[in-house]
């Protein structure tokens, strides 16, 4: 008996269509809007941590920063490839949530060089993407992020982010590299 590929495919397509009608479909694909929303959410959270520090002190800012890190980053999925802007050897990279928290709010004796990047009094944060690359369930961005300080001075950094969705469908940062712009 010879297998008829076209007839077999048609029958398979009919069965698959019927099966899908009753199946739960999980789409972990990312949209451009989800990526842009995650970036702006990160910026808004940074400003909110600065405001919380100003209004309620370091302990309240630390509590908020922990919530933000837990919600925005993928540490619950494994190590995050995080290289913050103002870190030095031997703690340049922050693959753990504890390292990220210390970078943002300082005060951790295990990270003595951290003064708290999010506590600098930022009043505004804007993302200026140069490129966004989306491939199904992951996305990468590269561009600038501009931070406005309490005196109106703007500091710009080069930033690369990588995003995925977790099992619940929430967008998570799994790669975050930041560096000051080159000054010749």
Can you describe this structure?
The chain is α+β, with helices and mostly antiparallel strands. It has helices at residues 5-22, 32-56, 58-72, 97-105; strands at 81-83, 124-135, 138-148, 154-165, 171-180. Strands 1-5-4-3-2 form a five-stranded mixed sheet, with helices on one face. Helix 2 (32-56) runs antiparallel to helix 3 (58-72) and helix 3 packs across helix 4. The protein is globular, with a radius of gyration of 21 Å.
Q: Number of helical runs?
A: 4
Strand pairing plus helix content: what structural class?
alpha+beta
What gross morphology would you assign? globular
Give a short account of the largest sheet. 5 strands, mixed
Cα gyration radius (Å): 21 Å
Strand order of the largest sheet: 1-5-4-3-2
**What fraction, in percent, of the residue positions are helical?**
25-40%
Strand content: 25-35%
Low-confidence stretches: 1-14
* Termini separation: 75 Å
Helix-strand pattern, N to C? Answer: HHHEHEEEE
Please tally the β strands and state the result: 5
Averaged pLDDT, please?
Answer: 89
């Amino acid at each position: 008996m010879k297998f008829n590929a076209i007839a077999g495919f048609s029958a398979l397509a009919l069965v698959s269509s019927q099966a899908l009608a009753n199946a739960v479909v999980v789409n972990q694909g990312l949209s451009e809007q989800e990526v842009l929303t995650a970036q702006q959410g990160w910026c808004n959270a940074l400003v909110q941590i600065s405001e919380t520090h100003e209004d309620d002190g370091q302990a309240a800012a630390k509590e908020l920063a922990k919530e933000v890190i837990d919600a925005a980053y993928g540490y619950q999925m494994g190590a995050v490839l995080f290289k913050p802007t103002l870190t030095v050897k031997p703690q340049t990279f922050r693959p753990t949530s504890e390292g990220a928290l210390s970078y943002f709010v300082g005060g951790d004796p295990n990270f003595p060089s951290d003064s708290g990047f999010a506590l600098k009094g930022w009043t505004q944060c804007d993302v200026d993407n140069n490129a966004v690359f989306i491939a199904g369930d992951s996305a990468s961005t590269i561009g600038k992020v501009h931070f406005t300080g309490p005196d109106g001075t703007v500091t710009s950094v080069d930033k690369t982010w990588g995003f995925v969705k977790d099992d619940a469908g929430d967008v998570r940062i799994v790669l975050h590299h930041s560096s000051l712009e080159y000054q010749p």
